[in-house]
Amino acid sequence: MSQKKKVIVNSFFYIFSNLLVKAVGFLLLPLYTLFLDPDDFGIINIVNGFVQVAVFIVAFSLYSAAIRFYSEYKDDRSELKKFYGTIVSFLLVSGICFVLLGIIFKRELIEIVFNGISFYPYVLLSLIILYFVTLQTMYQNILQARQEGKKLTILNLITFGMTVLLKILFLVILKQGASGFLVSQLIVNILYSLYMIIDLKKNGLFEFRIHSSMLRKALKYSIPIIPHNLSTNIAS
After folding, report:
1. Residues 189 and 129: beta-carbon distance below 8 Å
2. What is the pTM of this model?
3. CB atoms < 10 A from the CB of 68, how many?
4. Of residues 99 and 24, more confidently modeled
């Protein structure tokens, strides 16, 4: 397959994958209106909004660096492994730090973002979900950089199916409301992140080690992009 054709095909897969992810909420809307009261629905919207914005802060927008520097390292597998190992390892550590900071400053976090929402279980679940969404989003950007649109689409199809089944289980059968909704979301995020680590290691693209020079280079590129990413997501 020519490079031009490969780009076109993968672009189609990326568009389809993004639409599929966004379609989950729309297709399950009748389920939410039947089994979630207005308070639960409000909590879920606030949590999802928080995660969509905070993910760029926790990741320092390194998603952009994962795509930007792939072309620089792609011809040297060893260097590519060091680079992806560095940014994924950094996210594993930085994510834990942000979760701990959220727990330590939970009162301030509730006042600023989650006003009127109890820390346990909702805010705590949102912090843990944020951690795994950060990893999940990084993996999706790595697949995008490597032009693996078909693989990304298959993963999103599987994720879509698991999300639907788990939300039916927690909302319809177990009747857990907002907490059940968030738990089902967390389970999917955890499984996705575990698969990421296994797949990257299997393909020789991950080692748990941070190379300071590569990290500085990636952060120098990604940090100035944070305001742009934040403004776009805050606006939506």
Report:
1. yes
2. 0.91
3. 15
4. 99
